């Protein structure tokens, strides 16, 4: 059973420490298209934020909306709140996550990121098992958000003999 009428992922929302820095990174480095900004918003003594979006009611925030390539939408928040947690979680921490982007040429993409001063973690890694055929590498935003780039121009091992595949921006209609 699924949520009635569910079609798929609409956007990914996350919080950054500095919305201007994030804007520069997402637009000028990653190539996102900026669409609009909302806010600032605050509860003004009420409980709307805690009741509707699980946010401390003392917070004030604004957000911006972006699109990357043929489908990834991002809603990026900056909250103003004394005492907020400033530590970006590691992938191994509860709440830790990463965003993975497909690129056509992983080596070219790594060279580009390095030329822009982006911290790339290690060298591209060759996957095995069900992901054989894929290469990947992690990199960090200036504030520590974790990203991954993947490339599998000839497909992945798990795809052999399957009618339905994991969604990929290479073939978004499938």
TrEMBL record:
Name under which the protein is recorded = VOC family protein
Q: Which GO terms describe its biological process?
A: L-methylmalonyl-CoA metabolic process
Q: Which domain of life is it from?
A: Bacteria
| A molecular function GO annotation | metal ion binding
**InterPro entries given in the database record:** Glyas_Bleomycin-R_OHBP_Dase, MMCE/EMCE_epimerase, VOC_core
Pfam families, per the entry: Glyoxalase_4 (PF13669)
Q: Which organism is it from?
A: Brooklawnia propionicigenes
Keywords, alphabetical: Metal-binding
| Residue stretches making up the VOC domain | 8-152
